[in-house]
Design goal:
alpha/beta; 14-stranded mixed beta sheet; 9 helices; 14 strands; about 30% helix
């Protein structure tokens, strides 16, 4: 099955009202849907753009920004659910920091289906920035989701640097991994890229990474943004030698690419190596712990 994906390298904006943000999202997603996109991937922390609409006393303060943006959650669901339904597409709506009953926030990535229904995956590991905020807590459940073109897993940014999450999702049948990301340094972007390529290699599935782009001096969370929108696969027969199926060659915009998901699965079954199937060899009792070897005389 060939599927057309639209992966965002999203320039952070400063919308004065929710309606301004909504109009931009509707325009952008309508354009990629018109080009045949069946699944659209937006970046982590997308919802924090909305903090600007509350004015400088709010958007200069992360805690107040989170509280204010959370009041827009119902409108967020309505916006993306309506777009998905209108165009008959799947939409990964970046991420939204959702308020919990205990006063903390979970970094939640929402996936909308073509009927406008939604499900979510929460970020499982926190970066230093998120820990220092002292109000963001990690999720505690790993999920996969059924779509028309196969089962899908989500790793939010830092989560893709931990191999057992994607591995568990692949073992649960995930044929595709979506990675909404937001990084403010070249090193951070490199870590996410390396994580994406490693997960593609280990599990022999396509990995789609969407990123924030550009600079935004008004936001402490979205100040500088790096990385490239890309689709990664395992290097093997019929696939790119470098493992990069497609990458956006621009400062911002959309990466649109058609991926032969069945072809990638065929390469997994008939490839030069079978990393995904050979994974269990690491779990043999004799190699679970490294032992100190001794030098011996002949």
């Amino acid at each position: 099955m060939k599927v057309t994906f639209a992966v965002a390298q999203w320039p952070v904006d400063a919308p004065r009202h929710f309606d301004d943000f909504a109009a931009r999202v509707e325009r952008e997603l309508a354009a990629v849907a018109a080009q045949g996109a069946q699944l659209v991937v937006l970046p982590e922390y997308l919802a924090l753009e909305l903090a600007y609409a509350f004015g400088p006393e709010i958007y200069h303060d992360l805690h107040r920004s989170l509280a204010s943006v959370d009041t827009l959650y119902a409108r967020w669901l309505s916006l993306f659910g309506g777009i998905a339904r209108q165009h008959g597409i799947y939409v990964l709506a970046g991420s939204f920091l959702r308020l919990r009953d205990d006063g903390s926030y979970r970094n939640r990535s929402l996936l909308f289906d073509p009927q406008g229904h939604h499900a979510w995956q929460e970020k499982l590991r926190l970066t230093g920035f998120e820990k220092e905020a002292r109000v963001i807590t990690p999720g505690n459940a790993l999920k996969v989701f059924d779509t028309e073109f196969g089962r899908v897993g989500i790793n939010i940014c830092y989560d893709v640097e931990f191999p057992l999450y994607a591995r568990a999702q692949a073992e649960a049948g995930a044929a595709l991994l979506l990675v909404p990301s937001c990084t403010d340094t070249a090193a951070g972007a490199a870590r996410v890229r390396i994580g994406c390529q490693a997960r593609a290699l280990e599990n022999q599935i396509p990995v789609l990474c969407a990123v924030t782009a550009g600079k935004s001096e008004w936001s402490a969370a979205l100040d500088t943004n790096t990385g490239r929108a890309a689709i990664y696969v395992q290097p093997d027969h019929g696939l790119p030698d470098g493992g990069v199926l497609a990458e956006l060659d621009a400062a911002s915009g959309w990466l649109l690419a058609e991926v032969d998901v069945a072809g990638v699965q065929a390469a997994r079954a008939n490839g030069q190596v079978g990393v995904a199937d050979d994974w269990r060899g690491q779990l043999l009792p004799g190699v679970q712990r490294a032992r100190v070897g001794k030098f011996e005389r002949e």
